[in-house]
Amino acid sequence: MSSGWIKLHRQLLEWEWYDDTNTKCLYLHCLLRANHSDTKWRGIDVKRGQFITSLEALSSETGLSVQKIRTSLAKLKSTRNVTSKQQGKARILTVLGYDSYQDSNKEVNREVTSNQQGSNREVTTDKNVRTKECKNKKKEVTNDRFAEFWDLYGKKTDSSKCKTKFAKLTKTEIDLVFEKLPAYIKSTPDKQYRKNPITWLNGKCWNDEIMQPNNAKSTHTFETQNYQSGNF
Fold it and tell me: For a tag on the chain, would you pick the N or C end, based on fewer CB atoms within 10 A?
């Protein structure tokens, strides 16, 4: 995609990841790669502000390692700059607020020519729109994060209750969920011994100590008994 353009505001200088070279590079690359209009790719709907990619493709296109791409992508997702959704073997990246990098300056021109009362109304309306957009973006990100949790947890029961509970978690708690959950999943490879997801969320089990899997304990006991009996 070599045609078209994006619009950058100088406020980008104040962006929290601006001094993070890898994350800034990845984000600007996403802005430039995102579709200007809705399209299809191999039967998959790709909306405006989205594009089909993979970690390997992003690595090749930016010159960053796959691990650096993973790290920077996690940062951008945590601050709701992008969302990522797996679609079969492909990955759909969505740049949240993409329209703000495309719109013209018509709103600014209207403010210059209108009277103060009209300007105040426009500002109020604009604030309301931005507030609604922020809420929608937050809801979209929460839904995406819950989908990641749901797929990772594996034991799919009480989806509605889990989604409601997940939406009430703070950003810090969600970060802890994804930090601790892989170890818990590894400790309970047999899903029948894994807590129901709603129980795990309600109990804030990301704060619990992760116990060894039963088979690991059994193996250790077996090896100890054989060592003591001289079978080694």
Answer: C
The helix (run of H) or strand (run of E) holding residue 228 is helix 214-228
Beta bridge mates, 90: 87
Q: What is the pTM of this model?
A: 0.43
Give every residue of the chain whose pLDDT is below 50, as ranges: 105-113, 216-224, 226-227, 231-232
Label residue 69 exposed, middle or buried (CB < 10 Å: 0-12, 13-18, 19+): buried
- Residue 194's contacts (CB-CB under 8 Å, 6 or more residues apart) are 153, 154, 155, 184, 185, 188
Closest CA to 109 of 99, 119, 120: 119
pLDDT digits 0-9 by tens, 18-44: 999 999 999 999 999 888 888 877 778
Q: Report the topology of domain 1-104.
A: Arc Repressor Mutant, subunit A (1.10.10)
Dihedral angle, C-alpha 186, 68, 32, 99, nearest 10 °: 50
* 96, 134 Cβ separation under 8 angstroms: no
